[in-house]
Amino acid sequence: MKYGQIFFSIFFFLWLLSAIPAVNDCSAYSFIDESGIKETGQATGHASISLTQRSPAQMLGMIIKVLLSFLGVVFLIIMIYAGYSWMMARGNEQVAEKAKGTIVNATIGLIIIMLAYAITVFIGGQLAGSTAVG
């Protein structure tokens, strides 16, 4: 597979992901408004938090979670690609070694992502004075 094809595939996948929020806005049935769950939550003392009621710190935390989740999906795709390359090496040592290197590098990347999440949660908790994780 050429680099142009890989770039196009990644670009197309990201373009599809950008269309997902638009699909949610076009729904004809609003579960929260029409199912009665909103009234039940208010009766039991659970207040709903919409996106407009969130603080900037909560919004930043939500954005970081989405980005780190996306990086987890990228890790999964890279691992599947590397595993497939290793299986299809057919005895070619160079291709197998390249696939092994890709797996090692993807694992190191995942560890870095997990450490970034842990540091973000720790620093965010210290700045907000909260011990809640997530």
TrEMBL record:
The keyword Transmembrane helix applies. Keywords: Membrane, Transmembrane, Transmembrane helix. The lineage of its organism: Bacteria, Candidatus Falkowiibacteriota. It comes from the Bacteria. The chain crosses the membrane at residues 59-82, 103-128. This is Uncharacterized protein. It holds the Pfam family T4SS_pilin.
